[in-house]
Amino acid sequence: xxxxxxxxxxxxxxxxxxxxxxxxxxxxxxxxxxxxxxxxxxxxxxxxxxxxxxxxxxxxxxxxxxxxxxxxxxxxxxxxxxxxxxxxxxxxxxxxxxxxxxxxxxxxxxxxxxxxxxxxxxxxxxxxxxxxxxxxxxxxxxxxxxxxxxxxxxxxxxxxxxxxxxxxxxxxxxxxxxxxxxxxxxxxxxxxxxxxxxxxxxxxxx
Length: 206
Prior knowledge:
Shape: globular
Number of strands: 2
Strand order of the largest sheet: 1-2
Order of helices and strands: HHEHHHHHHHHHE
């Protein structure tokens, strides 16, 4: 019993650490937008120190649970480019090329089941976040899946990827939701809000 509990705690910690890596990277990309909104996230506060701290978290996560955390990282990388799949990247190739390359690497390193789970779970997190931020993103002009295809279509996609994630690995999916909740609390605690921004409440159905 205690062995299983310890294994679960290690898996949860690894997911929190890799989730922290993904969150810090995402916040670093959105730093200018967050600053304009009067929000200083941990990524903004760390500044140039962001890279070494993020690498430390990544190494620890990979050491504790290499398969799942690798699948999560590659899943977040690919899903983050879905809305810009035709855009040219700094590597001078379209985003869809890197998506396929990342999928191939994940398949090679973690196997097909972990790869499908990682992609499905990160899509669930990313698209769920798009639904939460739809009204704010419409006002600010940020890219958002809901604004591209609508609430109903995004909801159906969320149900689809949730089913896929649960079918591939129900235990890791449940653990991932707990890790997500912990990261949400940590993000709130480490973000300084210089002023409050009231978002317009718009109906984005369609």
